[in-house]
């Protein structure tokens, strides 16, 4: 498989074409910037190799503990981590779940430390819905799709490079 350095170089190489294609498709420089930034983040920090000790995993620094359960659950190069269809969706859902879990734990620890009553499940759900509504109003729903498209493309470029590399290696073994 290509090295982490090769994947990083490819991610940076694809940034300009990604911006141009996103600009043409979306008709908006702002959305093209969002797609390109999400693609860079997806390729460098949020890609398929979070299931192993990799550059992507190491870049999370102190916060890499968030990805430890992911590493335990998903086998490397499975359709669930490297799959073009499911890989990014699973990471987005997993990461969202971890953020909700960590935020909930932080709220309850704060409540214990200050003696304030901890909010119930319904109050927490109401707060998350308010955050979602506020984000939708301030940044718009198109931005969410632009971020998801960029994250997907960053991860897909990694997976497609792995597939191409494997095909080249297998082809060279035949000859």
Return residue spans where pLDDT drops below 50 for at least 5 consecutive residues.
none
Structure class: mainly alpha
**What's the rounded overall pLDDT mean?**
86
Give, in order, the helices and strands. Answer: HHHHHHHH
Number of helices: 8
Kindly describe this structure:
α1 runs antiparallel to α2 and α2 packs across α8. The protein is globular and about 65 Å long. The chain has one domain (4-174). It contains 8 helices and no strands. By secondary structure, it is mainly α. It has helices at 4-26, 29-44, 55-59, 68-73, 79-82, 87-114, 121-139, 141-174. Helices cover 77% and strands 0% of the residues. The model has no long low-confidence stretch (mean pLDDT 86).
Summarize the structure.
The protein is mainly α and 175 residues long.
What order do the helices and strands come in, and which of them pair?
Layout: H1 4-26, H2 29-44, H3 55-59, H4 68-73, H5 79-82, H6 87-114, H7 121-139, H8 141-174
Helix pairs in contact: 1-2, 2-8
What keywords describe this structure?
mainly alpha; globular; 175 residues
């Amino acid at each position: 498989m290509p090295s982490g350095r090769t994947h990083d170089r490819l991610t940076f190489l694809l940034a300009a074409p990604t911006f141009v294609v996103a600009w043409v498709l979306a008709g908006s420089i702002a959305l093209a910037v969002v797609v390109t930034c999400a693609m860079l983040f997806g390729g460098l920090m949020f890609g398929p190799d979070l299931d192993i000790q990799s550059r992507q995993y190491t870049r999370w620094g102190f916060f890499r503990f968030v990805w430890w359960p992911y590493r335990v659950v998903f086998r490397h190069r499975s359709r669930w981590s490297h799959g073009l269809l499911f890989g990014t969706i699973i990471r987005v859902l997993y990461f969202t779940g971890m953020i909700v879990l960590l935020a909930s734990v932080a709220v309850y620890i704060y409540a214990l430390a200050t003696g304030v009553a901890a909010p119930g499940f319904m109050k927490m759900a109401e707060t998350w819905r308010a955050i979602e509504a506020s984000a939708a109003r301030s940044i718009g729903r198109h931005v969410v799709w632009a971020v998801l498209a960029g994250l997907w493309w960053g991860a897909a470029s990694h997976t497609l490079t792995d597939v191409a590399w494997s095909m080249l290696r297998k082809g060279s073994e035949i000859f």
